[in-house]
Amino acid sequence: MSEKSEVERAINSLGELRLIGFQVKDNDIIAEVETYKKPVFCPSCTTAAEPKDRRTSTIRDLPLGDKSLILLWKKRVWSCPNPDCPEITWTESADFVTSRHSLTNRAKINLMKDADQKGVSISKLAQKWKVSWSTAMTAIREARELTRTSQENVKEMR
Q1: φ and ψ at 84, to 5 degrees?
Q2: pLDDT in single tens digits along all 158 residues of the chain
């Protein structure tokens, strides 16, 4: 499978993104991505939103082979055209990553498994993922909570 196909597959598996382009730099694959275009409405007054700007967020995802996958997410900034609405602008969000975080949710679960099942130290995980110790520890705590909550939901469904 070609490198481009692998990158596209990884991006598509997140479900909300499309690949704009990518480059390989050292041991990193840096992929520019954006969400699929869809109608967006103001969260306060439900008026159709207008695009205002873009902001780039850097998010680490699961590695592809021996290379780190870094997403440069070109987030849209939206504005409400309704002059009576208190909501002026907001930045899009997506389910694959928690707002204001630098690791995808599946990367957090991978960190948790390495720490809990393989006994890898938080320091080594932080170094591997090129994040701070506190970011790695927070990610592991969040993944534990996500896992616990999803297990409880499965039990309730039975």
Answers
A1: -90, -5
A2: 688 899 999 999 999 899 999 999 999 999 999 999 999 999 999 999 999 999 999 999 999 999 999 999 999 999 999 999 999 999 999 999 998 899 999 999 999 999 999 999 999 999 999 999 999 999 999 999 988 877 666 667 66
List the domains of the chain with CATH numbers: 1-96 (no CATH), 98-158 (1.10.10)
Angle between the 122-129 and 133-157 helix axes, to the nearest 10 degrees? 100
* Look-up of token digits 């969040």: 142
- Among 127, 106, 7, 13, which Cα is nearest to 61's? 106
| Contact criterion met (CB below 8 Å) for 81 and 44 | no
CA–CA dist 77, 55 (Å, integer): 7
